[in-house]
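Known limitations

Files may contain more than one protein. Parsers should not assume a single record per file. Below, a two-record file is shown to illustrate correct handling: read the sequence, read the token line, then continue until end of file.
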Amino acid sequence: MEDTLIILTANHGGKGTGHGGNSPEERTVFWAAKGKSIAPGTLLSDEVEVVDTAAVAARTLRLDIPENWDAKIPTGLFQDKK
């Protein structure tokens, strides 16, 4: 567990009769993470979108996040520096 990050997320939802659109209701998901660099009890004030998981994974693996990604690291998620 010393070098482990666990991310738990849910599939995005649908709206009306569609599934997988681009509305906030369809892009915002349940999202949780647990790991050494995350302070216990951390609550995120930002909305987390499905695409943000990629940015968190990249940061955890010490990879650069491409500037053209829509993905972002939720503010306050990590307590340590990169």
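...continuing to the second record:
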Amino acid sequence: MMLFSQANGRRVVGLTEAEVLGSLAALSVASAPARVTALKLKGRGPRDVLAWRQVESFGPDAVTVRAGGEGGDDVQDDEFESRRDPMGKPVITEDGHCLGKIVDVEFDGTTGRVQRLMATDEEIAGERLLGVGGYAVVVRGG
């Protein structure tokens, strides 16, 4: 398992050209099942979002991606920014209780499956995730 806080800033390297494409800056998360769907890179330029399916491995020093990071055109940068990055967003249960803000995400570096969302007030199992919106993360009540 990997925490986003540990992976944040890690170099992202394309396997085809063995070049550094940038560094990990954010995750895009979807529900049902809770999983990482894309990576946002810092320092890559106009094509700074990669689809999770391009990830070959999460190593201790770098994230490697297939095809030099090409082919991520199904991931929209504005959609990623506005809706799917859970970090810092309030966590609200389906019945309206606030559980604090997301401070970290634990995920499987091989599959992208989200194991836990860490909020300021409690840890939330990934299975409880209902959605990540532009304003908040919504989870099932616990």
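Parsers that stop after the first record will miss the second one. For reference, the second record is described as follows. The first helix runs from residue 4 to 7.
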